[in-house]
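Minutes, methods subgroup
Present: GH (chair), OT, SY

1. OT presented the first of two proteins processed in the latest run. Sequence and structure tokens recorded below as shown on screen.
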Amino acid sequence: MNIEIYTDASYDPKTKIAIYGELIIDNQNLNQPIYNFSSTIIENTTNTEAEIYGVLNILDKFDPQNYLTIYTDCQMIINLVSCDERKKNKPIYDKFYNLYDKCGDRCKFIKVVGHKNKDLRNNIEENFSKLDKYVRKQLRLHLRNLQSI
């Protein structure tokens, strides 16, 4: 089976809290695709790490019998998979490469232009925009809840 997953993160630099999310689109019924959103909160992180954690979450659940296409707007993730020299000195990179290597050629990453004018978006960019809005909304809600405590 071919699975398409979108991943994105939203980050608040003041609190160093981020949230990453994923959108899995079930296109089995092409007349009415099913959109499955999910998100996870991370504290004491950076935006780039949150983006990578989002991909780690996907790769960790990956069934090697499937083919996986991951859409991201994070250039660092694209660099991690396309660079001949692997990044070192951070456990997050080791975990990324471990999981990515298990996927082999069954996993590919596609860079999406984020925050594009609605009139200029293609279908992939429109799906990514839905996730981007969802993740930003979840972060705002979480920060609002923290302020009310």
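2. SY then presented the second protein from the same run.
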Amino acid sequence: MTIQAGEARAGNAASRTPSPDPEPAEPTDPAAPVETDDAVETADQTAGTGDSDTAATRLSATRGGEKQGPAERIALSLFILVPFAALVAAVPVAWGRGLGWTDLAITVGMYYLTCHGITIGYHRYFTHGAFKAGRPMRLALAIAGSLAVEGPLVRWVADHRKHHRFSDKDGDPHSPWRYGESVPALMKGLWWAHMGWMFDEEQTPQLTYAPDLVRDPALRRISRLFWLWTTISLLLPALIGGLVSLSWEGALSAFFWGSLVRVALLHHVTWSINSICHAVGRRPFRSRDRSGNVWWLAVLSCGESWHNLHHADPTSARHGVLRGQIDSSARLIRWFELAGWVRDVRWPDAQRIAARRAA
């Protein structure tokens, strides 16, 4: 096994004592292992003073609270179906009208901006605490992740921490093995893990699984303003396309590609990590679930599809630790570290990785 250069030289960064941090409390990982995936600490234990919080605080993290109502389900359905219809129409539209360089640049740029907002911000930083960041970077990552239109920050983090707490067992919000191991059961489970779980009326308790974020006023505000970030994410490509082309046609074309198609593609790539990467893929590392590495999703998922290592060592800032495993999120984190924007990065340590190798 070969650990990628640069991160391996960081040595025992994960074990260093962090310097005093004047910023608000860094995100904790109440569902992640401390040393091994068998030593999971429950989120309930880290919630601490949850009972003393007011009802207003409990419900202030997102606009939906912990119960999903009919209006939210209708909105969710629209944000799934409309972009998906555009994704289906993308091939005949490109065949008949072509895809211009402006639309392509806007789509690719917005895709990777928002994808890295999810992978670096929502996931590796806010969910797992893979590095530390000052307040400006924290807020930038929170907003960049929100632009992906995958849900409010606090709710996303709470769901994912609960997923790690019960990964592929009872209690996992989106395991493809929910209904059993037969082929029909797995097909039903893949649908559930991909999209169906999002319509569950019972939502993950945010104060239990993301107490650190709920108690941060700035992050609560960003989470509650999810509607604003969604609006910006959808209108910005159209604005850029219109200004570049100086035409309404250019604005509409950029909206189709850079907003609808981009959102649909990113959604289904992200959801494939929950479904496909827990059903198939190589498992070179020991984990207590069925997470696997799916190489053909690596570029589009910004490195998230090296999912087996992630579940074996959730707080690692790099998921693709073997030679040839592309992980653009880890590369960006490395650049952020060199620029001084993030610190105390938990780079993979050769000894820790070796200890997690499957027999």
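Chair's summary of item 2: Residues 70-97 form the longest helix (28 residues).
Next meeting: continue with the remaining queue.
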